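User: Need the bound-state model for zinc ion:
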Amino acid sequence: MGDITPTLQQYLNLFEELLQAPVYALPQIDKEAQLKPIIELLHNHHQFHCQEYNNITHQFDGPAKALDDLPFLAVRLFKQLKLSSIASHEVFKVLQSSGTTSQTPATLFLDRATSARQSKVLVKIMQQSIGKQRLPMLIIDSPAVLDKKNQYSARGAGIQGLAFFGRDLTYALDENMQPNWPVIEAFVERYGKQPVLIFGFTFMVWCYFLQGLVERGKALSLPQGILLHSGGWKKLEDQKVDNEQFKKTLDNLCGISQCYNFYGMAEQVGSVFVECEDGHLHCPVFADVITRDPYSLKICGIGQQGLVQSISALPTSYPGHSILTEDLGTILGIDDCTCGRKGKYFSIQGRLPKTEIRGCSDTHNAS
Ligand SMILES: [Zn+2]
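Assistant: Bound-state model below.
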């Protein structure tokens, strides 16, 4: 770790306090009161340590009245620029969002402290949904995804983050992304009668695992299974699969009724938005979303679809604390979800239309 400036020290102190806060219990007004100074400190920190961030945001002359006054970066900048707020010898991991094969990946520079913060927060958020026990874990991916040393794909990072909750980690797919049936069947045989955790990227669970079962005319019995899945719906939308159909198919083919989708970006590993029992994505205390009109970038009201701006209290090694995504979403309400969680809840409707349409076959490079 480099020199700790007074700004960074102040951030670290406030972040420690944030770690003690309940993940979903603060009303929006209290949560913003706690989050805003942290994001402001991150803004100052990155202005000081990242020349490009400073060039882009120097016109902002604060102080911000609210969280949504603070500057944000367009997500594509992480593909076009190497945005880092640390010296090269402090780089602990380089994370790459793989993107589709035709796209340049985003590159994120992590130091030990940011990486540790990401893991800690991911665990804290996920525990709210799946509890604290370590369960046998079936990963709907190929072990090849973790092959590269020190260079992590977003997929690999997601798996590594959630592996904390698992034991006897079992990979369900082989290197050709085909279901490894003997391995899957042995897992079900051994653990089918107890709680298990299953994790995969949404389209991989659908395309390779569930469709694989359909093609084989098979069903598995994992009635106490908990599925966590993430990674966007755009590929499933092409096949007209929505969340409801996904859940129904999962239940029919595997007997799994506990299924949590979560939304998160490779650029903000750790601060994820997990679906509640009512199917709404919730902002944890460490993160927030704002929706903006795609043309004017004005803030959208509740129920109005816009571009999602995602705010995360986590990254100090790269300026990823406030990012305007290319995802379209809608804030559904604040503090009043029927599940009882406080703060904002929202849904994602997909991407800004422009990307090429792909089927299931050649897409596993994307995540
Ligand atoms: Zn809810």
